[in-house]
Amino acid sequence: MRPKKLQAHCLSFCAAVTKHHTGEDEGAFPALAKQFPELKPVLEELAHDHGLITMMLERLEQLDFTDPEDSLRELNGIEAIIESHFAYEERKIIQALNELNAPEWTADQPKFLHKT
Q: For the whole model, what pTM was predicted?
């Protein structure tokens, strides 16, 4: 893939991940913490991961994508932490997400649930 095309794909990916994490931090996690207070430490850890991922994505956005080794190193690092983050998130909160009672989301669906 050419550097400009790869860069465009990466920027789209960064935007999608940021939207997802912002939605979790501002919508899903507070709702989960309210209904499942025992999950607060897990939710705090996941929010902390979001901060780390944000820093990595910001670094990726600054990358010029002309050095294949540098680009691959950054992409591999992001891939590793995101895969680990999602696996941990699924193990720890998927059941609570499935049980989450948020009737207000039916009438006024949060932006992070909208498909773009």
A: 0.84
